[in-house]
Design a protein that fits this description.
seven-stranded parallel β-sheet, 12 strands, 290 residues, binds NADP nicotinamide-adenine-dinucleotide phosphate, Rossmann fold
């Protein structure tokens, strides 16, 4: 079975590639910069140099591939949803023109809304494009990655996180490594077909207040969290030079959940994964703070 992995140096992809290697598979990795792969990993994979936003390159890369782990790359330009549109088109063409029969897609809780959730609207568009492409497809609706805290190093050093949702509102927080484990199992399994959706919720729903407490304990520094008005957040983002569309995309990922959103997938034994935020914060995050 030929398995391809998009974004193999990403938060989930790097673990997925390692798990597949340990399972005896030699994955094909779709990477725009293979130099980012560790040399020992590089020896255990095949590489197709591929920009995931380039549909022609993706179609060529997946020739002969049976199963694909697809990631919409994090947007880098001024129009995030336009980039998600390109990624959605590439993913669909991997199936319709590249002949891939099975796709596991890294989606998010909230994609079921389809609209009104900022960047997650882009993941929804990819779900829809894949649904129409004709392959067996599994959408992994992931919770909030622990690793998102890595984008908040300065705020955490300063001891104060600022968020847009109520600090006592729980949401699922998940280890990217656990997502990789679910993805690997599904990529290797022959026990499913058709269209499926599976949530990956991590071990517990946590509020931002709980997260601040857990991280504070793990890193041995004081950490608090405050909710700030949406306009203040928008203004701070504009001050960093972000485009209007970029600000909307980021803000929407918080405000889009404030309308009484009920997830399509409830937490269950199937969606609950084991790795704790406390262990990740102590083992992986604390060293980043220096
Ligand atoms: N963060 C969350 O909480 C969350 C939750 C659910 C879903 N998601 C979705 O997961 C995806 C990304 O997750 P992430 O933010 O953690 O990022 P990430 O997986 O760390 O993504 C970065 C990876 O994407 C690769 N990449 C970037 N642009 C590329 C391109 N044009 N072509 C090929 N490879 C490219 C990078 O490769 P290089 O080595 O070449 O730089 C790097 O490996 C997004 O679609 C996001 O919406 C995120």
């Amino acid at each position: 079975m030929r398995i391809a992995v998009a974004a193999p140096t990403g938060h989930v992809g790097r673990h997925l590639v390692s798990i597949l290697i340990r399972a005896g598979v030699r994955p094909l990795v779709l990477s725009r910069d293979p130099a980012g792969l560790a040399s020992d990993i590089r020896a255990e994979v095949d590489v197709a140099v591929t920009d995931l936003l380039d549909g022609d390159a993706v179609v060529e890369a997946v020739s002969g591939v049976d199963s694909l782990y697809w990631v919409d790359p994090p947007p880098a330009g001024d129009d995030p949803l336009a980039e998600y549109g390109l990624a959605a088109a590439s993913a669909a063409r991997a199936v319709t023109e590249g002949g891939v029969g099975r796709v596991v897609f890294q989606s998010s809780v909230g994609a079921e809304k389809r609209h009104g959730v900022g960047e997650i609207d882009g993941l929804a568009a990819t779900e829809v494009a894949l649904d129409h492409a004709g392959a067996d497809v599994l959408h992994l609706r992931c919770g909030y990655f622990f690793t998102n805290l890595e984008y908040q190093l300065d705020a955490i050093r300063a001891g104060m996180l600022q968020v847009l949702i109520p600090v006592d509102k729980p949401m699922p927080w998940v280890s990217p490594r656990d997502i990789a484990e679910v993805a690997a199992g599904r990529l290797l399994s022959k026990e499913w077909s058709g269209r499926q959706v599976q949530a990956v919720h991590g071990p517990a729903d946590l509020t931002w207040r709980q997260v601040a407490g857990i991280v504070s304990e793990a890193i041995g520094r004081p950490l608090d969290v405050e909710r700030i008005p949406e306009e203040d957040m928008r203004s701070a983002m504009r001050g960093l030079g972000m485009s209007a569309a970029g600000v909307d995309s980021l803000v929407g990922m918080s405000t889009g959940f404030l309308d009484g959103f009920e997830p399509e997938q409830q937490r269950s034994v199937r969606s609950t994964t084991p790795s704790s935020l406390a262990a990740w914060a102590y083992g992986e995050f604390r060293p980043l703070l220096g």
